[in-house]
Amino acid sequence: MAVEQTLILIKPDGLIKSLTGNILSRLSEAKLIIVGAKMVRVSRKLAEEHYEHLKDKPFFNELIDYIMGQQHNTFRVAAFVYQGENAIKKIRDVVGDTDPEKANPVSIRGAYGRITTSGVYENVVHASSSPEDAEKEIKLWFKPEEIVEDIYPTKEVVLNNVKTLVWA
Ligand code: UDP
Ligand code: MG
């Protein structure tokens, strides 16, 4: 079984409902290690890049507002990179189905998610769904120096006369 990395986000509804501790406890059931963690104020650019695969969906604009925190007036997201064998599926199993109504009630989304009156799934967490998505998402949300393991190739560039590592 391959060692994988996966990006987890506690979305603004998860933060405002004070679910951070519960969610991290539930995720610890997967017996993985955390190799990156931070709070992020989500720009429109970051939100649109993260959800680029959904840009033609009718709920796209609302989804962008949601992940930026506009709906909850709380402009932050908690971001984590978990690593371990089969990490992507293990985390998705604990997180549950995208639709909180369809999600197993013992999963995180089944327990804490809801569907808004306009139809957006407020499902409290994001979790990467494939190794390709995980790599794209981790490189989007984290700099190499913010990850405590060497997970993807990097290269050195000079920015404002300072040597900096960026994803290769
Ligand atoms: N989403 C939604 N309605 C849908 C599908 C998705 O509101 O019919 C939202 C939901 O918040 C979901 C996010 O868009 O988590 C990203 O959708 P994706 O299909 O990638 O689901 P995920 O990978 O998050 O389970
Ligand atoms: Mg997805």
Write structural notes for this entry.
The protein contains 7 helices and 8 strands; from the N terminus they run βααβααβααβββαββ. With 168 residues, it is of the alpha+beta class. The protein has one domain: Alpha-Beta Plaits, CATH 3.30.70. Strands 2-3-1-6 form a 4-stranded antiparallel beta sheet, with helices on both faces. Strands 4-5 form a two-stranded antiparallel ribbon. The protein has a two-stranded antiparallel ribbon with strand order 7-8.
Q: How would you sum up this structure in a few lines?
A:
With 168 residues, the protein is of the alpha+beta class. The model has no long low-confidence stretch (mean pLDDT 97). 33% of the residues lie in helices and 26% in strands.
